[in-house]
TrEMBL record:
Pfam families: ABC_tran. The keyword Cytoplasm does not apply. GO terms for molecular function: ATP binding; ATP hydrolysis activity. It comes from Ancrocorticia populi. The keyword ATP-binding applies. Keywords: ATP-binding, Nucleotide-binding, Transport. This is ABC transporter.
Amino acid sequence: MTDIRLTIEDLHKTYPPRGRKDPGTEVLRGVNLEVHDGEFLSIVGPSGAGKTTLLRCISGLLAPTSGRVLLDNQEITAPPREIALVFQDYSRSLYPWMNVGKNIALPLRAQGLDKGEIAKRVESCLASVGLEGAAGRYPWQLSGGMQQRVAIARAIAYQPEVMVLDEPFASVDAQTRNDLEDLLLQVRQETGATFVFVTHDVDESVYLSDRVAILSQTPSHIEEIVPIGLPADRNQLETRALPEFSELRAHIFGTIRNLVVPTNTPPEYTI
Ligand SMILES: Nc1ncnc2c1ncn2[C@@H]1O[C@H](COP(=O)(O)OP(=O)(O)OP(=O)(O)O)[C@@H](O)[C@H]1O
């Protein structure tokens, strides 16, 4: 049996009232989830279902109202060293006044590594994300996709056990997005890390994952966990052309659509 890396136990989160007339916002109501060691698990769900809230609780950035998140059986009460985060907004996560090398080195310096080890890690992580020799460039000199590669390099330089990513590819074009998806699969193979990945893109969740967890409408719980039994060796053209791929995306899309109470707003998910 696979080891459990992360356990989410009966997690509840209600944001406190913002004024006298605001009762507060109950977002998570009893989320239970286990993430296996080395697994790639994606979280999808209707817009506003609480995906980011759940990720923030998992990574120790937000205290749950009740319930617990355990990393290797230890309750998380603050951001643990073993977890690295990558967000959608790379332009805010990289420091524009520091070059790429310094951006990647910053958390390593905080970890107390010596200069030689830091320089080695910066170069090898840049090579892993296809940005050899870019250490001296500044974030504003790079395209959006390249900046997100730097954010991924910074996360892997840290040698985390778990990588938590919140819609990391939502702001890049379709071709770059496919390249970054493959980069993530390569990073997963090289590092053996566990991935928890939030996306609005059902196809992306099927392409990348071992399992996809579907969050319900708020106050949310896990509606369904879908095992993705596709061959481990994924390929943008062949994997996406498999009949099982279409069946899985149709199933997940249908489940999310059934969760959404009809409104006049256009659907966010497309198939
Ligand atoms: N700091 C906060 N204070 C109060 N309410 C909040 C706060 N952050 C989020 N919310 C509310 O919690 C709900 C869930 O938000 P969250 O961002 O977690 O959902 P999401 O599934 O990630 O959203 P999206 O699909 O838009 O990315 C929303 O109704 C949001 O307005």
